[in-house]
């Protein structure tokens, strides 16, 4: 409150000090270490029951009734309650200062915890308030004892006449609402105390809520004092001062504001506790779901978390029509396009439309999954509807927090668009097919499952010829090669052709050559030549692998692909040897040519146990090792100044970094070599 408001309240008889000053006063007199012990929660339960019956603002079921056997060992802090009750019912009116009374109550409760202070004040009020309303229900159709007690408690004045009762009825209704709001605030304070044992004390919402407990306790007790003053005038045949009405209106608004804030904080804290349990439940359900796309979709994507969010819904983009029968997905592949509402790409929509319109026999369905943490944020619904209107495929709205966490942790979504491909059995085949969709459109299906051994088949999909397809299917040894220099490429071809004659004569093995083509130095991956498309696919493969939390074989594959990409601008060219679609090795063109040149030195190693491919790979590694020892390969490399050196992906020796960086359509930068 500002100083003008303070003066107004002071003029009307109630002076309210700034909250900061109040906090300092009540905290100075707070020493709960050795406070007398009593069962705070039992006292609150009894108090809540009294208020529920007295205010009639809710239907009290049998389950809410007090069961005496539950309180056999409970001892009421009667002296403290009567002392507080006297402070409220007498002093507040006599001195005409609700704040003085409130601070007086804090003075009496110095050794109690904040929670206990609030519950004791509410219980003291409830004892007086409940007693008055109980007697008003019994009076005057009762015995002489009840009548006498009612007279002493001024009940006849409360029920003086029908006209007076109607006049006061509005006040009673508002009073009861304020009492119940205060009850709920104190209930929230107790709940926060309970949650402290189950949540990280450094959690932001819990810290903020706990920090507010002293001042919230103060406002709760001040509101209780204000309500006691209202009750005082209900039992008097005199006009209520304007200052009492002003105070009552002010504290009612403040206590309702506090209640709204506490509810938000409690919801967040409760989510912090519940979400790990809910997430474990989701993981368990997904693990045990029948291996069928519809079951997995229903279990994972439409997972119901009714505690915190609207249930997830599936709808058709253009029509905005909700889909209730997910059997339309049965037996299909699903491409999940996952994004935030802020980074949906119009180019991605165009690429996905090609897949949507061209998928053979409609075997692949597309489902857009927008990752939205809070749908109540301004403009989110409109943003969703705007994007959905541009998509003819399915869209999911209101994902549960558990599903969002699953997508982030299991599918590695990091706030950039992602496409996850799931097969008809509900198994993920590709964790980021978006790169392939952007490059190959409908042909991305060839890349749906990254295989550590057969990745070359996916990369060559765009360059596939009938002959190459036959070689791969028949398991022939194939040398894929290319470079930036015509002379080096021709030299490799001549050496390979010479060696393949000897290999055919010695081993009866047919060697096949496939020239990917020349890539001009420094040309971008968007080059439409065969070589450009090849390197674009290699970059996309590397980007896809970078989106995995890699381990084992996939880690080795990423290193292998990264190594191959480093040869792109090498003047000696590059080469990949495969047996069918299974990659044997890859390397510099000069190193592969040297292995072929020296075939006579390692051919004796070939046997039934050791294949041509295995022996080739071993000798290739030997050549690389010899190069590492000599410091440079036969073509004569100058390593230059060592200031900006990095490790070669082949021999691990320092190499000079160039100004060339590789970029894909996702604008990912590769470490320069």
Give a verbal description of the structure.
- This protein is 53% helix and 10% strand.
- With 673 residues, it is α+β, with helices and mostly antiparallel strands.
- The strands form 3 sheets. The protein has a 7-stranded mixed β-sheet with strand order 2-1-5-4-3-6-7, with helices on one face.
- Strand 3 (333-339), helix 14 and strand 4 form a beta-alpha-beta unit.
- The longest helix is centred in the middle third of the chain and has 47 residues, at 242-288.
- The two termini are 65 Å apart.
- Residues 1-14, 57-69, 632-646 and 650-673 have low confidence and may be disordered.
Give the SSE layout.
Layout: H1 3-11, H2 19-28, H3 40-55, H4 78-95, H5 98-108, H6 114-138, H7 144-152, H8 155-158, H9 162-195, H10 204-211, H11 213-234, H12 242-288, H13 293-301, E1 313-316, E2 321-322, E3 333-339, H14 346-358, E4 364-370, H15 380-388, E5 394-397, H16 401-410, E6 418-422, E7 428-430, H17 434-440, H18 455-459, H19 466-474, E8 477-483, H20 486-507, E9 511-518, H21 530-546, H22 553-565, E10 574-579, E11 582-588, H23 589-597, H24 599-602, H25 612-630, E12 645-647, E13 654-656
Parallel strand pairs: 3-4, 4-5, 8-9
Antiparallel strand pairs: 1-2, 1-5, 3-6, 6-7, 8-10, 10-11, 12-13
Helix pairs in contact: 3-6, 3-9, 4-5, 4-6, 4-11, 5-11, 6-7, 6-9, 6-11, 9-11, 9-12, 10-12, 11-12, 12-16, 17-21, 20-23, 21-22, 23-25
């Amino acid at each position: 409150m500002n100083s003008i408001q303070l003066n107004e309240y002071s003029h009307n008889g109630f002076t309210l000090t700034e909250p900061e000053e109040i906090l300092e006063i009540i905290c100075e007199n707070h020493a709960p270490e050795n406070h007398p012990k009593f069962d705070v929660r039992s006292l609150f339960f009894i108090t809540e029951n009294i208020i529920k019956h007295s205010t009639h603002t809710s239907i009290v079921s049998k389950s809410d009734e007090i069961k005496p056997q539950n309180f056999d060992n409970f001892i009421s802090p009667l002296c403290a309650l009567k002392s507080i009750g006297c402070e409220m019912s007498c002093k507040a009116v006599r001195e005409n200062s609700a704040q003085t009374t409130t601070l007086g109550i804090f003075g009496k409760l110095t050794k109690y915890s904040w929670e206990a202070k609030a519950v004791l004040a509410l219980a003291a009020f409830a004892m007086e308030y409940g007693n008055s309303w109980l007697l008003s229900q019994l009076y005057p159709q009762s015995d002489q004892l009840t009548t006498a007690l009612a007279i002493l408690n001024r009940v006849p004045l409360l029920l003086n006449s029908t006209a007076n009762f109607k006049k006061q009825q509005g006040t009673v209704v508002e009073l009861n609402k304020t009492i119940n709001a205060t009850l709920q605030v104190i209930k929230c304070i107790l709940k926060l105390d309970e949650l402290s044992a189950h949540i990280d004390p450094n959690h932001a919402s819990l810290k903020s809520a706990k920090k507010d407990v002293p001042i919230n306790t103060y406002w709760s007790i001040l509101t209780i004092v204000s309500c006691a003053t209202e009750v005082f005038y209900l039992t008097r045949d005199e006009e209520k001062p304007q200052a009492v009405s002003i105070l009552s209106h002010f504290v009612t608004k403040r206590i309702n504001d506090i209640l709204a804030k506490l509810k938000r904080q409690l919801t967040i804290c409760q989510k912090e506790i519940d979400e790990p349990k809910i997430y474990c439940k989701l993981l368990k359900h997904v693990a045990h779901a029948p291996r069928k796309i519809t079951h997995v979709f229903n279990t994972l994507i439409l997972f119901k978390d009714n505690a915190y969010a609207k249930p997830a819904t599936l709808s058709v983009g253009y029509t905005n029509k909700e889909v209730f029968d997910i059997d339309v997905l049965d037996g299909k592949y699903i491409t999940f396009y996952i994004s935030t509402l802020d980074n949906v790409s119009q180019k991605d929509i165009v690429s996905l439309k090609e897949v949507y319109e061209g998928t053979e026999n409609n075997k692949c369905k597309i489902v857009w999954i927008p990752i939205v943490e809070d749908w109540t944020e301004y403009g989110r619904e409109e943003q969703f509807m705007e994007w959905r209107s541009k998509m003819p495929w399915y869209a999911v709205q209101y994902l549960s927090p558990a599903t969002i966490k699953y997508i982030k942790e299991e599918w590695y979504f990091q706030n950039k668009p992602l496409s996850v491909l799931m097969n008809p059995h509900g198994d993920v085949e590709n964790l980021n097919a978006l790169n392939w969709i952007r490059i190959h459109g409908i042909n991305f299906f060839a890349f749906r499952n990254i295989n550590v051994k057969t990745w070359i088949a996916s990369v060559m999909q765009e360059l596939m010829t009938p002959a190459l397809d036959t070689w791969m299917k028949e398991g022939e040894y194939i040398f894929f090669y290319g470079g930036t220099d015509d002379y080096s490429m021709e030299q490799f071809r001549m050496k390979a052709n010479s060696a393949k004659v000897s290999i055919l004569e010695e081993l009866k093995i047919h060697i096949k050559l496939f020239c990917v083509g020349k890539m001009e130095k420094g040309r971008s991956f968007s080059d439409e030549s065969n070589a450009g498309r090849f390197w674009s696919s290699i970059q996309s493969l590397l980007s896809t692998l970078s989106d995995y939390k890699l381990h084992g074989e996939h880690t080795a594959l990423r290193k292998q692909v990264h190594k191959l990409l480093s040869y792109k601008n090498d003047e000696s060219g590059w080469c990949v040897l495969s047996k069918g679609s299974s990659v044997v090795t890859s390397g510099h063109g000069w190193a592969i040519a040297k292995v072929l040149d020296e075939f006579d030195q390692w051919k004796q190693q070939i046997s039934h146990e050791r294949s041509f491919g295995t022996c080739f790979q071993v000798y290739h590694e030997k050549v690389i090792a010899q190069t590492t020892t000599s410091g440079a390969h036969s073509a004569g490399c100058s390593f230059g100044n060592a200031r900006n050196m990095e490790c070669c992906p082949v021999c691990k020796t320092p190499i000079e970094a160039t100004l060339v960086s590789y970029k894909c359509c996702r604008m990912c930068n590769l470490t320069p070599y």
